[in-house]
Amino acid sequence: MQIGKLLGIESYGTSSSEEKLARVKKLGLDHGINYRERDYEEVIREMTGGEGVDAVFEILGGEHTLKSVRCLREFGSVIVYGAATGKPGTLDPRVLYAKGTSVHGLWLSVLSGNKKVMDAAWARMSPWIAGDQLRPVVGHVFPMEQASAAFQLLLTRQNFGKVVLTIP
Length: 168
Description:
The protein contains seven helices and seven strands. The chain has helices at residues 2-6, 18-26, 40-47, 64-70, 108-111, 115-130, 147-155; strands spanning 12-15, 31-34, 53-58, 72-80, 102-105, 138-143, 162-166.
């Protein structure tokens, strides 16, 4: 969210909690949608006058992959980088044809091994970090012995920011 704000990107985000949405708004979120109260696909359609958005970063999987595609405008892209629901994304590729949209996979662990990409990203982000414009958000820190508690926090979606395990 912080990087998007620094790049001047208008952002939409979803959460099941008004508290989390308020915290993300402090990081730069423009439009927060509580998906327990409203269908985010419907809200995106309303907020964009039916046009949709340029890109969706999709981490949920399951039915959300298709819903994310339906949130796109012409030539938009869904970047899939997770399956937090535990279900693989469901998508008939024919839904992509009408608007010329696309779905891309992104495995952050593999990407981090690409020196050329990482060097370029570091060069771009370093001034923001030095200028205190980009700060990691650490929500919880657990000792390694409490790894199961940390994992439970993630499973129940009670976390905000990164969950860190410390190794003695």
